[in-house]
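Problem 12. The chain below contains 96 residues. Write out its predicted structure in token notation.
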Amino acid sequence: MELYRGALEKYPYLKELDPIINEIFLKVINSGKRSVLLQGYVQSGKTGAYLALVAKMIDEGYKKIFIITKSSLSLAWQTEKRVLNFLKMMKIPSMC
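Solution.
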């Protein structure tokens, strides 16, 4: 839980999403599925939520996590920037 707690400390707004992130995480690990799709409205906090979920999954031993974004180049660039900043801040190695 080290990365996840660090994410909550560095991004205080995620504390509000903590119950939802935990609910999603439990559904993921209890489903036995290897793929999960998270979707939401524009500007609804999706990026922060799935980055916190990524941190939680890494803490739990997941080794490979893929983030696929919409085909809109401006949104894809924005998401990539946020993800890379998050990974760098949390000292998580990436393949980008």
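Discussion. The chain has four helices and no strands. Students who got a different answer should revisit the alignment rule from Section 12.3.
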